[in-house]
Design a protein that fits this description.
Strand order of the largest sheet: 7-6-8-10-9
Distance between the termini: 43 Å
CATH superfamily of the largest domain: NadA-like
Number of domains: 3
Bound molecules: 1,3-dihydroxyacetonephosphate, iron/sulfur cluster
Radius of gyration: 21 Å
């Protein structure tokens, strides 16, 4: 069985583990249908592996197991395709032969897969058959996505509409958000972005409106807009818990170019400028590579900033012997370290930060989900309602069309 301790980085094995949790996970919510999972917890890794592979062989191309780069290695081993959020969306959108997608990632990713894999043209091409999307653990959420609820976003929209023309505001939601927020963007002329296309999406938005309302990640919004010459002063932060105007003076909203939602990733906010300074002092020539969900003070001083896909590509293309301190989720950094012994790779923080909700997907959950599928039971199916799907799809298709 997998040790609950993450594959600790050689740089920081004894440090406390800081983990991102969703509200659901921290409240210990577990779907009732998961109670029969217990026997799987007692199986050895070897047995779990064999049983998972048996189900994969049974279904062949009808089953697609997708895995986000932050998944643990023993889960990644059983995936057909792995990628960052954007790549996984494209894979789901392109799926033609499969009948079921098992998503080893978090809830918003599985929702996106359900919406994209079941686009009307795809369903028609499959003679009306929909693809079922399963998430091995329903408590695999995203704490950042939980920071913006649809009612809060609608209330913010109505409030700002008292002083600015919202016809001229383009809502942009990071893909790390509930489908209801994507639908909000679809309804209001907006769009979805991922960390790999955020700049192109903001450019798309500014071709259509004067301002952008960006949620839920303030850091991705700010870091991206700064590269476009938008200043911090033009980016007020909207606090959904503030009593008026998201905690801003009217003038701040009137003078804004990008209104940033007060949300963040609990994992990436752990990286600090002092970590960068220490690595630079201790390892002359080291390059700092971070995800744009990191706060501005880290992102600004990094050598390279980019999505998980870009982080991987940057390391793959570097000269042997290059030294890196990488600021993103621990499992990915450890995998890069193992796959690139020709380079010197460090984890940027002295604290072991991992995405605890991604980590909920493990071999017992995967095996349980797959064996139920083989036996004709769909467990933990993610199915977005029709109305939400219709509007989310509009915002997602706008994103996929932006190059
Ligand atoms: P990517 O878009 O880089 O896959 O990031 C997803 C994510 O959740 C990062 O925290
Ligand atoms: Fe959400 Fe952060 Fe985990 Fe990504 S790493 S899924 S943003 S909590």
């Amino acid at each position: 069985m997998t040790d609950p301790t993450p594959n600790a980085s050689a740089d920081a094995p004894q440090m406390p583990v800081m983990a991102a949790q969703t509200q659901a996970a921290s409240a210990g919510v577990e779907s009732e249908s998961q109670l029969p999972l217990a026997p799987y917890k007692t199986l050895s890794e070897e047995v779990l592996r064999e049983r998972i592979e048996a189900v994969r062989n049974h279904f062949g191309e009808e089953l697609l197991i997708l895995g986000h780069h932050y998944q643990q290695d023993d889960v990644i081993e059983h995936t057909d395709l792995r990628g960052d959020s954007y790549q996984l969306s494209e894979m789901a959108a392109g799926s033609s032969k499969c009948r079921t997608i098992v998503f080893c990632g978090v809830h918003f990713m599985a929702e996106t897969a359900d919406i994209l894999a079941n686009r009307p043209d795809r369903v028609e091409a499959r003679d009306g058959r929909k693809v079922d999307v399963l998430l091995p653990d329903m408590a695999a959420g995203c704490s950042m996505a939980d920071m913006a609820g649809i009612r809060q976003v609608e209330a913010a929209w109505a409030d700002m509409g008292e002083i600015i023309d919202t016809e001229q505001v383009i809502p942009v939601t990071y893909i790390n958000s509930a489908a209801s927020l994507k639908a909000f963007c679809g309804r209001h002329g907006g769009i979805v972005c991922t960390s790999s296309n955020a700049r192109a999406v903001l450019e798309w938005a500014f071709e259509r409106g004067q301002r952008v309302f960006f949620f839920p990640d303030q850091h991705l919004g700010r870091n991206t807009a700064l590269t476009m010459g938008i200043t911090e002063e033009q980016m007020p932060v909207w606090d959904p818990y503030a009593l008026e105007m998201g905690g801003n003076e009217d003038a701040q909203i009137e003078n804004s170019r990008v209104i940033l939602w007060k949300g963040h990733c609990s994992v990436h906010q752990m990286f600090r400028p002092e970590h960068v300074a220490k690595f630079r002092a201790d390892h002359p020539g080291i390059k700092i590579l971070v995800h744009p969900e990191c706060p501005r003070d880290v992102n600004d001083i990094a050598d390279v900033s980019g999505s998980t896909g870009k982080i991987i590509k940057t390391v793959q293309e570097a000269e042997p012997g290059t030294k890196w301190a990488i600021g993103t989720e621990l499992h990915l950094v450890n995998r890069l370290k193992a796959e690139h012994p020709e380079q010197e790779i460090h984890f940027l923080s002295p604290v072991v930060c991992m995405c605890a909700t991604m980590y909920r997907i493990d071999l017992p959950h995967l095996c349980w989900t797959l064996e139920n599928l083989r036996d004709g039971n769909l467990v933990n199916q993610i199915s977005v309602d029709e109305e939400t799907t219709k509007w989310s799809l509009i915002a997602l298709e706008r994103m996929l069309a932006v190059k």
